[in-house]
Automatic annotation (TrEMBL), chain A:
It comes from Lentzea waywayandensis. Signal peptide: none annotated. Residues 6-301 form the FAD/NAD(P)-binding domain. This is Reductase C-terminal. Pfam families: Pyr_redox_2, Reductase_C. The lineage of its organism: Bacteria, Bacillati, Actinomycetota, Actinomycetes, Pseudonocardiales. InterPro entries: FAD-oxidoreductase/Apoptosis, FAD/NAD-bd_sf, FAD/NAD-binding_dom, FAD/NAD-linked_Rdtase_dimer_sf, Reductase_C.
TrEMBL record, chain B:
It holds the Pfam family Fer4_15. Residues 1-29 form the 4Fe-4S ferredoxin-type domain. GO terms for molecular function: 3 iron, 4 sulfur cluster binding; electron transfer activity; iron ion binding. InterPro entries: 3Fe4S_ferredoxin (IPR001080), 4Fe4S_Fe-S-bd (IPR017896), Fe-S_cluster_ET (IPR051269). This is Ferredoxin. Its cofactor is [3Fe-4S] cluster. Ferredoxins are iron-sulfur proteins that transfer electrons in a wide variety of metabolic reactions. Keywords: 3Fe-4S, Electron transport, Iron, Iron-sulfur, Metal-binding, Transport. PROSITE patterns: 4FE4S_FER_2.
């Protein structure tokens, strides 16, 4: 790449903020603009479904950096303006306020947008959860309500079910799959998660779909595929999220469930991606992956900043993520493909204190700890790099 | 360099221990961070700063 004098980072959450900050820390002195579609200062998302929903943190505690940090680093914040288009040949990004910003280096860190049900979202009391405004609105409704239905038993759904139960609500968790988090962790861990939730009073309706959301102005219930209607004054729809790439349509940047990047997180000439939105070739596992977890936002933001400054190092992390539900602290490193075999290596499931190894084609690809953080950290090293690792380029 | 911990924010990820094992440890029972050196010597400053940057919960505050 030629001279780097104007860097634009689109997306002002963990990945975007880390990219901008790392650029400065590593000596970049040119212009630096951080664009975000939300009006508020960049904040951290993991506490939204936990501490903020539970009310143990004021929403302000989630702010990533004080405003002065951006001033000190010479990072120009453009908040409340979404990117609406990209002109690759001209090297400009169009914003919703009509502005066009030129760049020599562009970082796409626009994250994801919650998926919605095909019905029901016009009713008051029906929520998704991605932003701080979403979290504050959901908490407000939970405090005024007695019964919540959570649609989707992934990370977000199970965490919100736990938080809502702790607020004393009647909670029903619905998912078409047979167990919560089964796609993420397999049958045995998912069974343990189901038992934990049931023991804490969460009503599980798994293996069943949602056909309608009832209500006039406000939601009154959720109808399931067996015809039953579960009463609800609040519904959280947590059925996953889609990469926020609509603004890249027709731009020439390769998009396929995320911005497709090579091992250095490069998507096109001068264009890079980081965080939830990036699907890049991870040499450690020998394949393309997209990781919707907090740790990756930081690590990939750092990596992209260094690449912009001339490093050629492939980004080859072992993904790390965690979830807190009731008294369970579940942490994991690596990947957890459906075909992997799960072996309990330390402790036991019954004791709710264990480390499990996930093996695929004879190698450990993931390790999961349940209330066993220290041992888990030690077992992380068992996840060896793919022997078939090869480099891949996207042009 | 002074290191402070926001225990209330810590999620027990252990990234700090991986980055700076002489400065941070984790409690056995819940993985929460244990600060071993409040005032790390100069040769550990870079690793300590890296740990603070990596922490996914922003629980480490470094004052220089």
């Amino acid at each position: 790449m030629g001279n780097l004098e104007r860097v634009v980072v689109v997306g002002a959450s963990a990945a975007g903020v880390t990219t901008a900050e790392t650029l400065r820390r590593e000596g970049y002195t040119g212009r630096l603009t951080l664009v975000g579609d939300e009006k508020v200062l960049p904040y951290d998302r993991p506490p939204l479904s936990k501490q903020v929903l539970a009310g143990t943190w004021e929403p302000e505690k989630t702010v990533l950096r004080p405003e002065s940090a951006y001033v000190d680093h010479g990072i120009k914040l453009k908040l409340g303006s979404a990117a609406t288009g990209l002109d690759l040949a001209g090297g400009t990004v169009a914003l919703s306020n009509g502005e066009e910003i030129g760049y020599d280096g562009l970082v796409i860190a626009t994250g994801t947008t919650p998926r919605e049900l095909p019905f029901g979202h016009h009713l008051s009391g029906v929520h998704v959860l991605r932003t701080i405004d979403d979290a504050v609105a959901l908490r407000g409704d939970l405090l005024r309500s007695s019964a919540v239905v959570v649609v989707g038993a992934g990370f977000l759904g199970t965490e919100v079910a736990a938080s809502a139960r702790r607020l004393g609500l009647d909670v029903t968790l619905v998912d078409p799959l047979p167990l919560p988090l089964v796609r993420q962790f397999g049958d045995r861990v998912a069974t343990a998660i189901a038992e934990l939730h049931e023991e804490q009073g969460v009503r599980l309706r798994t293996g069943i779909g949602v056909t309608a959301v009832h209500g006039d102005v406000s939601v009154s219930g959720v109808e399931l595929t067996d015809g039953t209607v579960v009463r609800a004054d609040v519904v959280l729809v947590a059925i996953g999220a889609a990469p926020a790439t609509g603004w890249l349509d027709g731009s020439g940047v390769p998009v396929d469930d995320g911005v497709v990047c090579d091992a250095t997180c490069r998507a096109a000439d001068g264009v890079y991606a980081a965080g939830d939105v990036a699907r890049w070739f991870n040499p450690h596992f020998g394949g393309l992956m997209r990781v919707e977890h907090r740790m990756n936002a930081t690590e990939q933001g750092m990596a992209v900043a260094r690449t912009l400054l001339g490093a050629q190092t492939p980004f080859a992390p072992v993904p790390y993520f965690w979830t807190d539900q009731f008294e369970a602290k579940i942490q994991a490193y690596g990947v957890f493909p459906a075909e992997a075999e799960m072996v309990v290596a330390h402790g036991g499931l019954a004791e709710r204190k264990f480390v499990a190894h996930y093996l695929a084609r004879g190698r450990v690809v993931g390790v999961l700890g349940w209330n066993m953080a220290r041992q888990l950290r030690q077992d992380r090293q068992l996840i060896s790099p793919a022997t078939t690792a090869r480099t891949s380029a996207v042009s | 360099m002074k290191v402070r911990i926001d225990v209330d924010a810590c999620v027990g990820a252990g990234q700090c221990v991986l980055a700076a094992p002489d400065v941070f440890d984790q409690r056995d029972e819940d993985g929460m961070v244990v600060l071993l050196l409040e005032d790390p010597p100069s040769h550990l400053e870079a690793a300590t700063e890296h740990a603070a940057l990596l922490c996914p919960a922003l629980a480490i505050v470094v004052d220089r």
